[in-house]
Amino acid sequence: MTKNYLYILLFPALLVNGSAFAQKKAKPDPLKAEVIKSVDTRFDVLTDLSDKIWAFEEIAFQETQSAAALADYAEQLGFKVTRGVAEIPTAFVAEYGSGSPIIGILGEFDALPGLSQNKVPTKSPLNDNAPGHGCGHNLFGVASLGAAAAIKDLIAEGKLKGTVRFYGTPAEEKFFGKLWMIRAGLFDDVDVVMDWHPAAETKAAVQKGLALVDFQVEFFGQAAHASADPWNGRSASDALELYTNGINYYREHIKPTVRIHYHIQDAGQVVNVVPDYSRIWVRVRDSSRDGLEPVWKQVEKMASGAAILANVDYKVSLISGIHEVLVNRTGSYALQKNLEALGPISYTEDEQVFSKKIQESTDKPQIGLVSIIEPMEETDEHSMGGSTDVGDVSYVVPTIRLSATTAPNGTPWHSWAVVAAGGMSIGHKGMGYAAKALSMTMVDLFQNPELVNQIKAEFKESKGDYVYKGIIPDGPPPIHSNLQ
Amino acid sequence: MTKNYLYILLFPALLVNGSAFAQKKAKPDPLKAEVIKSVDTRFDVLTDLSDKIWAFEEIAFQETQSAAALADYAEQLGFKVTRGVAEIPTAFVAEYGSGSPIIGILGEFDALPGLSQNKVPTKSPLNDNAPGHGCGHNLFGVASLGAAAAIKDLIAEGKLKGTVRFYGTPAEEKFFGKLWMIRAGLFDDVDVVMDWHPAAETKAAVQKGLALVDFQVEFFGQAAHASADPWNGRSASDALELYTNGINYYREHIKPTVRIHYHIQDAGQVVNVVPDYSRIWVRVRDSSRDGLEPVWKQVEKMASGAAILANVDYKVSLISGIHEVLVNRTGSYALQKNLEALGPISYTEDEQVFSKKIQESTDKPQIGLVSIIEPMEETDEHSMGGSTDVGDVSYVVPTIRLSATTAPNGTPWHSWAVVAAGGMSIGHKGMGYAAKALSMTMVDLFQNPELVNQIKAEFKESKGDYVYKGIIPDGPPPIHSNLQ
Amino acid sequence: MTKNYLYILLFPALLVNGSAFAQKKAKPDPLKAEVIKSVDTRFDVLTDLSDKIWAFEEIAFQETQSAAALADYAEQLGFKVTRGVAEIPTAFVAEYGSGSPIIGILGEFDALPGLSQNKVPTKSPLNDNAPGHGCGHNLFGVASLGAAAAIKDLIAEGKLKGTVRFYGTPAEEKFFGKLWMIRAGLFDDVDVVMDWHPAAETKAAVQKGLALVDFQVEFFGQAAHASADPWNGRSASDALELYTNGINYYREHIKPTVRIHYHIQDAGQVVNVVPDYSRIWVRVRDSSRDGLEPVWKQVEKMASGAAILANVDYKVSLISGIHEVLVNRTGSYALQKNLEALGPISYTEDEQVFSKKIQESTDKPQIGLVSIIEPMEETDEHSMGGSTDVGDVSYVVPTIRLSATTAPNGTPWHSWAVVAAGGMSIGHKGMGYAAKALSMTMVDLFQNPELVNQIKAEFKESKGDYVYKGIIPDGPPPIHSNLQ
Amino acid sequence: MTKNYLYILLFPALLVNGSAFAQKKAKPDPLKAEVIKSVDTRFDVLTDLSDKIWAFEEIAFQETQSAAALADYAEQLGFKVTRGVAEIPTAFVAEYGSGSPIIGILGEFDALPGLSQNKVPTKSPLNDNAPGHGCGHNLFGVASLGAAAAIKDLIAEGKLKGTVRFYGTPAEEKFFGKLWMIRAGLFDDVDVVMDWHPAAETKAAVQKGLALVDFQVEFFGQAAHASADPWNGRSASDALELYTNGINYYREHIKPTVRIHYHIQDAGQVVNVVPDYSRIWVRVRDSSRDGLEPVWKQVEKMASGAAILANVDYKVSLISGIHEVLVNRTGSYALQKNLEALGPISYTEDEQVFSKKIQESTDKPQIGLVSIIEPMEETDEHSMGGSTDVGDVSYVVPTIRLSATTAPNGTPWHSWAVVAAGGMSIGHKGMGYAAKALSMTMVDLFQNPELVNQIKAEFKESKGDYVYKGIIPDGPPPIHSNLQ
């Protein structure tokens, strides 16, 4: 797998002299003005759509209404829509135009369990225990589709040539739907893919995140009356507990970039029976797919050790796993130029008050919304934080990623606060901004074949001789697992 | 609390010469023939009622239909019924007659979660994940009411004097409803109480079972992203796991009569968050309430140790606890004589085939239904096995207990097999048999004041200076806890 | 292995009518008077010898001076002594006479580590961290040799015919020297064996004690700097700790008669290195060799589970194991008669004061020395408590066992208090008493072939078709292990 | 404590223009030539002294002969020697000259347990289980004294003015002797301190290492027979094991810069007794004294949690703790210039063969001795690796540190391989080289007051308002702890 991101050595011209596309940026591009206008025109419709998906609050692989709303709108706009791709009812592809280049854009729309929240700046569940859009995916899919629509307009008007393709990608929060979409070959013919993510800042996203793998361990023992004859029982809960003991001891012997976490899902049903079944969800992460491998294998193997200790049987089942992002700095730099051209989002006093209230409620510095376009960051060798299945896409096709502000600075992610901000004007503004930045950059990709070539060259170099293989089990995607 | 059951020294006459009541047994009692006939007459109605409750399959404190069916029938028979006693909607008292003696009889009717089963001799759920009568309580309440009805007939006809009182006692399987009925004073004026339990054999029940206490431990930590900043998290799951580690180490240092078991109820909700909440249900048992005390207190205290280890907060909440049974051998001996008079239950070839099939399915010796009335057992100093909230009643009023066969020999209790047998003729026969043996013994109690005095004398001696106090928290009974 | 000890059914005559030998007891036996006198005559010499061994305080397999002192004395008395038997330098056999019967008597003489103590009734080490005779074996070997000497006198005088054989049996406290003496065939030709043990009461010893097995588990990991690169280390200490976690979880699932305990011997040498080696001594006990087997095998197997969890290698090495005692009640009854004839030991006021002081120092009731000969106890199906390698002898040859008082009632065994009492007159009296009771019973055995036959018949019946096999590894005895 | 090492902003002149002293370097300094010659002249004596200390192999606080050898030689050279300073018999100060500046130099000489080794390139203990100089301290003290001697010569000749002071600092490997020397005020009047350390490379040492704290936790339970009545025991070993469980769970919640390790020192003495005593040595590290604090306090507090879980008492005793190094880059840069002037060490073919053999034996790349002077490294914000009590000196007085090659590249430190190389010519060469580089830099310090001022200015800036306080308990140093 890729060891060095040697873009600096490979593409010195980009940095020293500026490249062709960078020079173009100096002359304001009329097509970019058109896509900006196009997003503005549709802003109310997009906002509406986003609010609907916010209210649907559907979790991974259950996003029936959300996927339909997006697909219906794409169809209505004239896209050719293919629903239920990759054996996933809520996955779809919406395409417009024909021929090269083929530029893809990703749209997510799944919610997170337990985060339901009203559009107010203090914790206040809308529906008890219901899901909520704590990762802003109600905005994500809509903005991407808005960007695709703006490009579609230009293709329809003959101002751009090629194909724009919107990917409706479900289950990013759990299971990682893109893995099966890749397996189904849906990304095989694309030149470049773009995506964005709601965030608390606005920038070209050039960190790798973490690779991860999810697997499930089940233990199978022998039930017995916990008081009358516990010696006839073999406890699946004992095995699970000894397994987590083992995992916690193992923490001393993993590198600082590795993370292991688990969720005890079932350790017995009643107090007076030696449990004959237990189940735990285990996640292993590292800053690269390579580093992940030996830890993953050891944590899997440990299940057999725990089973021996508790004299029970066990089963390890791969759920799925994702790659860290293969960052494309050439593409990111093109995006960065468009961010600089757009400038930061501006906010009203009310939005700042709302934001400071959120910051107060979540014990963060009450500095409101911070709206600056910083110079593009370095890409850390070991960037930590979260993970995304866009990582896998980035190993299949060059991928350019944007972060756009949809919540106040410092907001804890995957929290009620993201739900609140994502359901009102702060989120809507970020969504519109993202649609503009993405479509402006797509204009570059459509207009500048050399840029696409440079992006591809970096991708090829970075990937090296690594042969991508998605971390998924054989068989259909686990589309019913969330119903258990 | 009572340390010696010195009935042998105290009541030598009972054993050597036989007592007044025992001598009466020799002369067949015409009233006993009447109660037997009375049960036979109502057998179809009782069977019907039992099958209804079997089908209601309602769990602890949720037994609305089951309690209503029993109470309605009692009312229809002429009993004076008081519903919703002791702040429990499904607890009731049905009384007939007036004045002394007051003889009580207990009737349980709650089912167990997850044991739903068809009336067939192999595992076959009727409703997936639904409860089932794995402890035979569909038969329990009905037989007791049938016995009470037979006595009522005699009182109504003026052949017996006094009061018969049926206690509809919910939630025996969990929470232990009788504790609150005792607290409400419902047993204060009774002379003797009888009960029975479905079993795989027929005998006077003279073992103590185990005292137990149930409490819940909750840990409260600090959530954090399990990958991005686990060092900002304090894990409630860690605390719970270290608590169970501690409990398992403690096992070396408890007496062989002690049992500790637990049910991990919640150790986090998602894999990528350091859990800020966890909950475990802990049960401690010993062969006596006295022995229970120090272990209970230590296991409670250990929660604070685990909380320190994981740097979290914790809360221990008493659920409830029960006493071992204060066995009354004088009363049991009276019952034993009636069992010997009745003789064993006889079974059809079909019932034996059904039973052997159950035994085959549960890996037990295929010996069918064993139907023998053995001599009364010794009462073990430390009898092991299960526990019952009848133990608490037995510390408040002298209690005579019967086991009657409702399932094949060797049937694992709290299993689908008990549900199956309890829903067909094997269970029905046991129910009828119990109703007869109980009402015959009640005839003894009504007719023989000296017997009642001897029973009370043994009770007083056995209890000694122990002052009964139910192990329940202040406040109302946890009638909604099963809905969580 | 033996399941039933049906001596009551088999030998009813012994209990109901009394047997031939029992009737003999009624007529005072002149030879018994002679052995009593013989012990009294040698009492000062025996006391001296006992005090020497007390002062040698030599632990298992290191008892060079103690063994030599006993063997030298036997030689001086005219016994034929064979030293260094069974590949053990401190094991020896001392024999006198010829032909049948051959009656053996066992003598132990090893001390316990860390129990050094002055002859005072409060804790006061004689030599810091030195061993001490906390099990009274300084008295054990000497009394047995005294008894053998008394019999030797009678053989020498032609009053008895046959062979008396003293076994100098080292390492009873650890390693269990008798196992290798049995393997060497040293017990093959004996008719009956006797032994005794210092105790806090005087009685025929008719409880089985516990079978046990000792084994060692070693884990082999990979060292690494604990700070610089712990991820390159695989910790043998982790494995050991996870192994003990597993053992403690297993405690829920063993029968009340089983015990598992362990001694962590090495879990690393310095704080800043991931340990590459660890070692633990594990002991498993049950009330029978049969019950031991599955638990032993599971605890052994668990080592492999812990090794997998910590990603290290492991090795399990059998140390040795012993059988529970195959009690011979026929022989015990003969001994009991002699105890009754001898009556209890009497003590001086000073000895009682000394004893009460010991009891005060060890938090025991200050009742002094209790000196009563109770009727012979029942043999419990599951007798708990300690273990002895006499158990193995008892499976090879019928064995009669005595407990004689050498310490105050309630004295915690294996403590400084036993050392103190065993070094002064209380211990000396018990030693003399034991020598008398043993030699009196040996007189019975030599004089009464029918008794020997009955003893052998019970032995045969009790043992059944069990084929004895000592629990020892191949190869020489571990005579140097205590020097590690 | 210091948060920023702003030397770059503070001393731009050093980097851009070069400083006064750096410019001087261009003109070969005649005094530097003299100190080089001085070291060469004494090389054989120094080598001899180093080999003696190598053979003494004395561990922390037991370095009687090693300290005496160094102090005697200093005395013989004309230094004024004060032995037994800071209540430590093996600590001493050797001083020459008078007045300002006072330049100190540190010399360590303690060995490590268990590393005894012959002077051969494969593992081969010289004395079984004996200590060995696995950290090269036989060379350390000698080279520093050699450097001091060279300066002494110049002072004696009137070529330099001021005081040179050699600190004989024992117990660096354990207990950290310098802490008590600082407490005794021995560093209060020094201007600058120098030291060096044997290593596998040659460079100015500009990384911070880790702060750490050592403490001991003892648990006190109640002994009981592990088989007869374990329920009367409260196990100190259980407490210790639950404590380590807790520590391992805690690892998830510490920052990547933190390390926690422990050494189980005593968890019971025999297998058949519930242990009433256990002891564990715990070490906590972080990249700064500040970061250490909360983790240290939590791990201490956890002892109380484990004690509650096992129902035992506990005691936490501080052993000692050290600060990370306050790097002085100004001083390091002066040293760097001298390294560049000296050039790398050259090795013979035999030395390379010896080195490659060591590398082969320790699974390292067989590249021999690497001898290059690289440009001075950046100082990492969080440098990991080991720790040194020089860290504490560096918080009291500006400290300049050197690493000099005494072992082949890649040699695992604290291993037999370091012992081997440190006892032959490879080690000797490094020792001589260090003496030269150190004395050359001391020449700079004596000759260039402005350099000393700049060094002090950086020190003051880096330290900020942090008030140094050594992490040691009250009372005398633990000079007898290693004899336990």
From TrEMBL, chains A, B, C, D:
- A Pfam family reported for this protein in Swiss-Prot or TrEMBL: Peptidase_M20
Q: Which domain of life is it from?
A: Bacteria
Please state the span of the N-terminal signal peptide per the UniProt entry.
Answer: 1-22
The protein, known as: Amidohydrolase
Q: Which SUPFAM superfamilies match?
A: Bacterial exopeptidase dimerisation domain, Zn-dependent exopeptidases
Which terms in the GO cellular component ontology are assigned? cytoplasm
Q: Which PANTHER family match?
A: PEPTIDASE M20, XAA-ARG DIPEPTIDASE
Assigned keywords, A-Z:
Hydrolase, Signal
Q: Which GO terms describe its biological process?
A: folic acid catabolic process
Its taxonomic path starts at: Bacteria, Pseudomonadati, Bacteroidota, Cytophagia, Cytophagales
Task: Provide any one GO MF term from the record.
Answer: para-aminobenzoyl-glutamate hydrolase activity
**In which organism is this protein found?**
Algoriphagus ratkowskyi
